[in-house]
Write a structure and sequence with these properties.
single chain; about 450 residues; mainly alpha; 16 helices; about 0% strand
Length: about 450
């Protein structure tokens, strides 16, 4: 039994695919981070308001990632068989579903922003700032959904460069407009929170226009056309629902978990919400590399299963487990070492919020070890390997029977906010024990493609 595969193509593909995906995720993260950091001089209520409104963006992103995951799982297996017509029809289905959900969220947030923010906090100043930001931000939701769906389609055929380029463009536009509009530079009005929201909307529009131009003028692999987007394949739609629904539902569970996290911590007040904003920003930053590598693992596994080379999967799975456990130890140690300098970047927050953020980061330095391992194994291997229902069931059990109940009980008993935060993150460690058993049973390898999909 080889604990580390000697197949050099695995490592080459892992790095080649992971670096652009990780960098794209990093740049996408920096777009939101720029809003938080450049807003911080306006005070705790502004940071909390943007963070709370950003939770809705995260909800959209998480659920959309479920639809993207369904596209990736099916399309990457068909990519292993080089069946391009089937891939294009799957992409069309995923894009339509994504746009439908994005439109629904955009309408609700545009019409009732104060109500939406009020679900997470009762602080009047946070609600006012968050609603102002969310009302404008909602205009970007459709563009965001379309862009991310098309990037996922390109990833499924191992074209990861456009996602990185489009994110870099978005970052430059967002940061530049933030500088001009938040504080008012070069004769522009000082719009504060509204300026940050406008900058994000403009950046999202340019993202979409670039990816559309790439597909029309540059792409030579996917070759997506307007007739492909207009068509509808009932058979593949049934497959998309059958295998994609558990993926999307799993992401919805996580979206509910994120919303509940904000609501539970929001009861502690503005200071705790600000601290949570800082800590979760670090969590997202650390997750960038892990997510990129996990996505690369998923593409490799899906392609390998689609090509019928299941004998390689055992070697790959042992290698993935060792690599990502080591990465978890390294990442956890790094979070602990840089936690104080990172909090120091937020110049406008109170001393109390900064101290609380450091306590939250102490918790993350431990739980992130588990995040690395379970993300790569449960998402990169099990889900992409075809056992899409298991991850959904596992997440549902942990979120609703462990994470949320423990956090609610702890808060009702008057536990400190960092203890409640630890309860909200405890599944990252606990799920590792489930992952070890599941992975090494090797009952998750399933070919989801149809023999006659070309016709």
């Amino acid at each position: 039994m080889k604990l580390l595969t000697r197949d050099r193509s695995f490592y080459k593909s892992l790095i080649t695919l992971a670096i652009p995906v990780a960098l794209q995720n990093l740049v996408t993260f920096l777009v939101g981070f720029a809003d938080n950091l450049m807003i911080s001089p306006l005070g705790d209520s502004a940071v909390s308001g943007v963070y709370t409104a950003g939770t809705i963006q995260t909800l959209l992103q998480v659920f959309n990632a479920g639809l993207e995951g369904a596209v990736l799982i099916l399309a990457s297996q068909y990519w292993g068989k080089k069946e391009m017509p089937a891939i294009r029809r799957i992409v069309s289905i995923g894009l339509k579903c994504s746009l439908l959900f994005g439109a629904l969220v955009a309408v609700v947030c545009a019409l009732f922003p104060a109500f939406v923010i009020g679900l997470f906090t009762k602080d009047a100043s946070v609600i006012a700032d968050g609603a102002e930001y969310l009302r404008i931000l909602s205009a970007s939701f459709l563009f965001f959904c379309a862009t991310q769906s098309l990037i996922a389609a390109l990833r499924s055929v191992e074209d990861t460069r456009p996602g990185l380029i489009v994110s870099l463009i978005s970052l430059v536009i967002n940061v530049s407009l933030n500088w001009l509009l938040i504080g008012g530079k070069w004769g522009f009005p000082a719009l504060g929170i509204r300026g940050a929201a406008i900058a994000t909307v403009v950046a999202r529009v340019f993202e979409f226009l670039f990816i559309l131009l790439y597909l029309v003028k540059i792409d030579k692999t996917l070759k997506l056309t307007l007739p492909d987007l207009k068509g509808f394949d009932r058979t593949l739609f049934r497959d998309f629902v059958k295998y994609g629904l558990p993926v999307a539902a799993g992401q919805l569970v996580w979206a509910v978990n994120l919303l509940a996290n904000t609501a539970i911590l929001g009861r502690f007040g503005e200071t705790t919400l600000t601290a949570a904003s800082v800590a979760n920003t670090m969590n997202t930053l650390a997750f960038v590399a892990v997510n990129g590598l996990s996505a690369a693992v998923g593409i490799i596994i899906g392609k390998t299963i689609g090509a019928g080379k299941t004998e390689l999967i055992r070697e790959y799975s042992y290698t993935v487990q060792i690599l990502f456990f080591a990465l978890g130890l390294l990442s956890g140690g790094l979070i602990f070492c840089i936690r104080k300098p990172f909090v120091g970047l937020y110049r406008g927050i109170t001393v109390e919020a900064a101290k609380e953020a450091i306590r939250f980061l102490n918790v993350l330095s431990v739980t992130f070890i588990g995040t690395c391992y379970e993300c790569a194994t449960l998402f990169g291997l099990v889900k992409s390997g075809g056992d899409v229902g298991f991850v959904f069931k596992n997440d549902t059990i942990f979120v609703f029977l462990v994470v949320l109940p423990s956090a609610i009980v702890a808060s009702l008993l008057g536990a400190p906010s960092w203890v409640v935060f630890a309860c909200l993150k405890c599944d990252q460690i606990l799920k590792c024990f489930v992952a070890v058993v599941k992975i090494n049973r090797f009952d998750w390898m399933k070919n989801l493609t149809r023999a006659n999909a070309e016709s």
